[in-house]
Design goal:
two-stranded antiparallel sheet
Length: about 500
């Protein structure tokens, strides 16, 4: 149920839309919105335009929202709907990036015409984004015709989305025509055109456009730098890197990654040390990439000096490939174990391969790998696949793997909790609750999360919800300050699996 503060009993005769509109503006989760909507229906009321706005906005745009629910409300509402509500829903589908999103956007657009609502520039901006996501060239070209017919081609936001759309579809000439015909170009227009050239492999044209830019942003520099690195033009990339008026973390990451991924670990390490000397804070991605690259370099060096690797050496290499996302390299080394060195893969090696495929989101391939394993997979390996199912939102496989694990390892709390979370994130609250009930029936206790930190030689241990530390108050106050700061840069609590 909603918090008591949201649902105060309504006075007799006061079951008004106004009171429910106030409630909708206070809702902070899909569960609260749906409960409020239920109460609205029970009281025989319909949505007003002002009450539709918060629920559709949240459902369509919030990471924990429900875009299908937004569309259902939009199409079935009996009250007048606005262009804003349709634009919000179309925008939500353009961000969803899932099968059927494009046609849901088109359905919303068609319904606007049925209701005699004229689209505006934002409508077409979001429609072109949806077409770009699906590389729907023919449909996007029709929208381009509508843009011209409705005289929106001079709008810089629409023009930029058209340039990007044609670039993504591989129609660089059409993108350039839209670019050249524009009477108003901003830095985003230039960046979109340069990115289109890079995306389609025309590095020389990207360099030419970059040299003509009247104004360059960090994105302009980093986009060109990333394109040169992508096509292995490392000398040109390094020249651009040196010419940059201001290098941010992205610039350093792109350049260091370029060296590391193209067989130049010494240059990557040298640049990494320079970065540290300039007080640039390296992120975990750089450290991970450099460590993994160095691990493979040492492995190859060991072989070149005549030292035969053993099974433990291959575990280290396969782990490095897994953490760096090098799927092809991982399979190469896995095959060379038996083909070159006659080492029979053991359970740990197979676990590394499943982890590699799971981290890369190749879940179907991971499941096929199970079938080809020379050893019967254990619950640890199945657990790795279950975790990947949750990360990549594959609820169907997650339910299948999770059910198998819960039955074979019925006293393990982690398996049951992970399966329950997968059900919850798939909007199957009843199934999630059933898993929790099974845990209670079997008397499976959830092991609380634990972390350790060493300060001045003393080890401090903390459990989830723990308040036993002598400096608990100071710790929680500091944590509240940290949460405030990270929320300013977009942090949101992960609540999608809460039931």
């Amino acid at each position: 149920m909603l918090k008591p503060s949201l649902f105060k009993p309504l006075k007799p005769g006061f079951h008004s839309i106004i009171s429910f509109t106030a409630i909708f503006h206070k809702c902070k989760s899909m569960k609260q919105f749906k409960e409020a909507h239920t109460q609205l229906i029970i009281n025989g009321l319909t949505h007003s335009p002002s009450s539709l706005r918060p629920i559709i906005s949240f459902s369509a745009l919030d990471p924990s929202g429900d875009i299908d629910y937004a569309l259902l409300l939009l199409l079935r509402a009996s009250t007048p709907r606005t262009v804003y509500l349709f634009n919000t829903t179309i925008r939500g589908f353009s961000r969803a990036r899932r099968p059927g999103s494009l046609w849901s956007s088109v359905l919303s657009f068609v319904q606007m015409g049925v209701l005699n609502l004229a689209p505006n520039s934002f409508t077409f901006t979001f429609l072109f984004r949806s077409c770009s996501n699906c590389v729907a060239f023919d449909l996007g070209r029709q929208f381009h015709g509508m843009v011209i017919k409705n005289s929106f081609e001079t709008d810089v936001f629409v023009r930029n989305s058209i340039i990007r759309f044609y670039s993504v579809c591989g129609k660089l000439d059409d993108a350039r025509m839209a670019f050249d015909e524009s009477s108003e170009l901003d830095v985003v227009s230039w960046n979109s055109m340069i990115d289109g050239c890079i995306r389609n492999g025309d590095i020389l044209e990207a360099l030419s456009l970059f040299s003509k830019m009247p104004e360059r942003s960090n994105i302009s520099w980093n986009s060109l730098l990333g394109g040169l690195v992508k096509f292995c033009c490392l000398d040109d990339a390094y020249w651009v890197f040196l010419e940059m008026p201001q290098r941010n973390l992205v610039s350093w990451v792109v350049m260091i990654s370029g060296y590391a991924q193209n067989g130049k670990p010494k240059e990557a390490l040298a640049l990494f040390r320079e970065m540290q000397m300039l007080d640039q804070e390296p992120n975990s991605a750089i450290l991970k990439l450099l460590i993994c690259k160095e691990a493979l370099h040492l492995f190859d060096q060991m072989k070149s000096e005549g030292i035969s690797p053993d099974g433990v050496s291959y575990i280290a290499v396969l782990c490095a490939c897994s953490h760096a996302g090098w799927v092809e390299k991982g399979f190469h080394y896995f095959a060379s174990m038996s083909d070159v060195h006659g080492i029979r893969p053991e359970l740990d090696h197979c676990a590394c391969m499943v982890d590699l495929l799971g981290r890369a989101g190749l879940l179907e391939k991971a499941e096929k790998f199970f079938a080809s394993m020379p050893i019967k997979p254990d619950n640890v390996i199945w657990g790795a696949l279950l975790g990947a199912c949750r990360v990549y939102g594959n609820a169907k496989m997650g339910e299948r793997v999770g059910s198998l694990l819960v039955e074979s390892d019925e006293n393990h709390d982690g398996r049951s909790i992970l399966l329950s979370n997968i059900y919850a994130e798939s909007m199957k609250g009843e199934d999630a609750e059933q898993v929790r009930k099974t845990m209670r029936r079997r008397k499976i206790k959830r092991v609380p999360g634990c972390s350790l930190i060493e300060i001045d030689g003393h080890l401090h241990e903390f459990f989830a919800g723990d308040r036993s530390h002598e400096k608990t108050e100071e710790i929680y106050l500091m944590w509240e300050e940290i949460v405030k700061e990270i929320k300013k840069i977009g942090y949101r609590e992960e609540t999608s699996s809460c039931v």
